[in-house]
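Researcher: Please predict.
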Amino acid sequence: MSCPTGHAMHAPRYPVPAAAVILLAACAVGAPFVRPPADAIRLGETTRAQVIALLGPPKEEERIVVRGKELRGITYLYAGDTEPSKVPGTLGLRQLGFVLADDVVVGEIFLSSFASDHSDFDESRVGEIVKGTTTCDAVMRKFGRPGWRVIPPATEHEGDALVIAYTFKYMKRPVLQFKSFEKSLAVRCDSSGVVREVSYGELGDR
């Protein structure tokens, strides 16, 4: 079985589908990489050239259309067994994507199932987020650094000044049995930094 070349990034609202990593089980895919620190990627300022200087050439690059605006997506992907997964007996996967408008970063999308930098979060605190009252800064204090950060023109709803999200997913081995679990928290923020919408969902079996 040959190794795939990677998985292209979809429009910002979609995490990487679990089925897309099935073929990664046969071999290591991509080169290991480290997510840059939070202050290294400034939405609306950091350029594609600066991202590549940090991380090297992306695994995939593609066209993305959001609300009629053509954007670009670049993706870094690594899957393999060189380090332990957070959930024993699962496939280790790390993905980092950037959404670009005119070669400037307007979205960062990260997820990992590795123990060292996993994107897991405490879903028991979702109920503490109150639409129209809680600030998005307060959400980040509760849940930590978000995996997703998206600003216009990459936001999919008019009036959203920022979208932050937390996504954790893993596939159980053997992956050909299609047993996976995913949970995701998405928070839409208005121009004053207050939560205007919050959603949480789970898919699959733990």
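Model: Residues 1-27 have pLDDT under 50 and may be disordered.
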